[in-house]
Design goal:
Distance between the termini: 48 Å
Largest sheet: 7 strands, mixed
Oligomer: single chain
Strand order of the largest sheet: 8-9-10-1-11-21-12
Shape: globular
Helix content: 25-40%
Length: about 525
């Protein structure tokens, strides 16, 4: 295993505690018991400077850095809006659309647009802008490729899909699917003009964006701030925390959740923890010659992992949750908590059945430190499986170019790395589709279990009843628990910290869905 590049948690804790000042009893009490201080009325004005530690491999340059496809930190809703928005409870809400109505077969969706919305340049948003934006998205964004036709019908927009999709409104909220002024596909979005609460003033590609209040914003009375400054700190949490302590930043997004016990005791600081968030998945190769092509080996690995220990050591009691080897999280109403305890004896028996009675050494497992705690997750995981006779070498790789390196030459041979991939929480219709058999993330899963899984998936997307869909989704998770096409040992609550005078700033399970409309400074 190579030397890990992440700063020790204890050092980061010291940095935070060293920044604590005196005279902060009120701030501390409000941190521990929200609502202790008398609620203040929001006020307009002021500026917020925040930094995000999340990597963004799609960041653009001076030519396209204003485009929502290449936004600095994926928080597109600072300058743009989509037709819908996913709130902190992972429920879809209207944004530039006010309503959506499907056909009986769930293939055709008529979308009613919000009236009176102005772009930053003063032009009124129309159905033509939405149609033009989606014709661009159809060719550039995977989520929109299911749309085979988009057209204007009066003041509405009609989207025709290639198959039924009962959860299509969630797709309308995806962070790439922002609405831009109508233009040719080669030019649309490059000016950085949107309908969002702030307009872009200047950009230093891959480093910093400065925005100012959009006085024409369609949400009347918002935003409160005059100015928003976003600084990119991908993978540099130590520097971000130093900047926070030194007064450079009002907030840090993407803080290591393992710091939460110390944050709760740190004066002059407040935090916001989402009810679920990202998870670190193990992509299991199932090509010929891979030991993980044997389901018994996959089952043994899943049973040998001490998931509770990972959560206890890496995340603590509040900031982590036990994974169930699916893409769903506890924030999803359909999430099926893992009902299979760790069973080292059974893991050993399965390995013996697979011809590894003396144990097995698996190929090297690779990961990148997408989040600061990822190395610790796999360190604890690798140690925990030794008890079942499984040797799991691990190695950290650079974040730059990691995904392309991980999938290797998958398109030709379907061989790929035994490696980690990050996953953010979405609705079941999107999340469960990620384990389709032709997807690298599923390790090109196949067999009877996969066939039943995909049949249930297709049935669910054509099912208008949420309760019936939920029953299907539960069964799909049971299949995953048995076949183990992928492993999720656990996940995190997304954590941000901010100064006590910052109000209305909330973390989000989908960090890319955070909105800054209601943030203000007291």
């Amino acid at each position: 295993m190579n030397t890990l590049e992440t700063a020790p948690v204890s050092a980061l804790r010291r940095q935070l505690l060293m920044g604590a000042g005196a005279g902060s009893a009120l701030a501390l009490s409000e941190l521990l018991w929200p609502g202790t201080a008398q609620a203040a009325q929001p006020r307009r004005g002021g500026s917020l400077v925040y930094t995000s530690t999340y990597p963004n491999n799609r960041m653009g340059d001076a030519r396209n850095g204003r485009h929502p496809q290449h936004w600095l930190d994926l928080n597109n809703r600072s300058a743009y809006n989509a037709l819908a928005w996913v709130d902190e409870n992972l429920e879809v809400q209207p944004e530039l659309a006010t309503a959506w109505e499907p056909s009986d077969d769930l293939r055709v969706w008529d979308i009613t647009l919000r009236e009176g919305v102005l772009f930053h340049d003063g032009r009124e948003m129309t159905a033509d802008d939405v149609v033009s934006s989606y014709r661009f998205h159809q060719t550039s964004t995977g989520y929109a490729r299911q749309i085979v036709q988009v057209e204007k019908v009066g003041k509405k927009v009609r989207m025709t899909l290639d198959a039924p999709n009962s959860e299509f409104p969630y797709v309308l909220a995806e962070y790439h699917l922002m609405i831009m002024p109508a233009a040719d596909k080669e030019k649309i979005g490059l000016a950085g003009v949107g309908t969002g609460p702030f307009r872009i003033v200047s950009i230093d590609p891959k480093r910093r964006i400065i925005l100012e209040r959009n006085e024409k914003y369609w949400r009347q009375g918002y935003p409160y701030l005059d100015r928003l400054e976003v600084v990119s700190s991908p993978g540099r949490m130590e520097g971000a925390l130093n900047g926070f302590r030194g007064g450079l930043f009002d907030a840090v997004v993407g803080v290591d959740p393992g710091l939460l016990p110390d944050l709760e005791r740190t004066p002059d600081l407040r935090y916001s923890l989402s009810n679920s968030g990202d998870q670190a998945l193990m992509v299991l190769p199932k090509h010929e010659g891979s030991p993980l092509n044997d389901k018994r080996v996959r089952q043994a690995l899943a049973l040998a992992i001490d998931r509770e220990k990972i959560i206890r050591i890496v995340y603590g009691k509040k900031a982590g949750w036990v994974g169930n080897d699916s893409h769903l999280t506890p924030a999803n109403a359909s999430f099926l908590a893992l009902q299979r305890p760790r069973d080292v004896a059974r893991a050993r028996a399965l390995l013996a059945e697979a011809g590894h009675a003396g144990g097995i050494k698996l190929p090297t497992f690779y990961f990148a430190a997408t989040w600061p705690e990822v190395p610790r997750v796999f360190q604890v995981l690798s140690e925990s499986v030794k008890e079942a006779g499984i040797t799991l070498p691990i190695e950290q790789r650079p974040s730059d170019g990691y995904r392309q390196w991980r999938v290797e030459d998958a398109e030709k041979t379907r061989k790929h790395r035994f490696a980690y991939t990050p996953a953010g929480p979405r609705n079941p219709g999107v999340s469960l589709y990620r384990l389709r058999p032709d997807n690298n993330e599923a390790g090109y899963w196949s067999g009877p279990g996969c066939d039943e899984y995909m049949a249930l998936y297709r049935r669910s997307l054509a099912e208008p009843s949420a309760d019936r869909r939920r029953a299907n989704y539960v069964r799909m998770q049971e299949i995953l628990r048995d076949d183990v096409p992928i492993i999720s040992a656990g996940g995190r609550g997304n954590l941000l910290i901010h100064k006590p005078n910052v109000q209305g700033l909330r973390s989000h399970p989908q960090f890319w869905s955070m909105r800054f409309d209601e943030v203000w400074k007291s």
